């Protein structure tokens, strides 16, 4: 009976990890495709991204329900309890990443046929590549329970903050050069903030991985870029 219970519990943990891996794959794909949609003015792809977010939301609810039921049935302690708490945290961060990718897709639809400044998107594409790398690396760190790799992601987030500062200045320059660029570049400013927030959620996941492995929270204050330190803007809402 004990052996059966242990195997059943292991299956539950394995299922949770597979669901998180599925969420990670969907979120990563949404982030990549959101930038493709914006760069190519692809409103069809943008609508697909918005629809995909529903699957991510459903997976998060499933993970939360499974975790709560597992805690209630098994009453885990120590490492096992950390695994379950970590699953809830990571699912929440991945759901927010999906929201942020969805926000970029919605911006693509709003921009529509407005006058575009193709060179203004170059910096945003670089930001998005860095954010995608952070997300991929931290999900790998979670899958491998790799504390060192998680800490590396945590430290690299400041690079994304620096890129956001650069993009912000570039977009302001485009706006000042020609007032006709203001509307399009304003949309891009919101998109850059969404991308920066994706990096923040990757950093959250990195902190969770360290907690899972060590049982201790990261005590070092998170590195922050200049704009982030002065900015309380929250880009996670649907209207951003």
How does this model look, in words?
By secondary structure, the chain is mostly helical. It is built from 7 helices and no strands. Helix 5 packs antiparallel against helix 6 (182-214). The longest helix is centred in the first third of the chain and has 39 residues, at 2-40. The termini are far apart. The model is unreliable at 232-236 (pLDDT under 50).
Key traits:
single chain, 240 residues, mainly alpha, 82% helix, elongated
Provide a brief overview of the structure:
The chain has 240 residues and is mainly α. The protein has seven helices and no strands. Helix content is 82%, strand content 0%.
What is the topology?
Blueprint: H1 2-40, H2 43-74, H3 78-111, H4 122-144, H5 147-177, H6 182-214, H7 226-229
Helix pairs in contact: 1-2, 1-3, 1-4, 2-3, 3-6, 4-5, 4-6, 5-6
Strand content: under 5%
Q: Characterize the largest beta sheet: strand count, sense, and whether it forms a barrel.
A: none
Shape: elongated
Based on the structure, what is the oligomeric state of the protein chains? single chain
Number of strands: 0
Low-pLDDT regions: 232-236
Work out the helicity level.
over 70%
First-last Cα distance: 53 Å
Structural class by secondary-structure content: mainly alpha
How many H/I helices? 7
**Estimated radius of gyration:** 19 Å
Q: Indicate the mean pLDDT.
A: 89
SSE order:
HHHHHHH
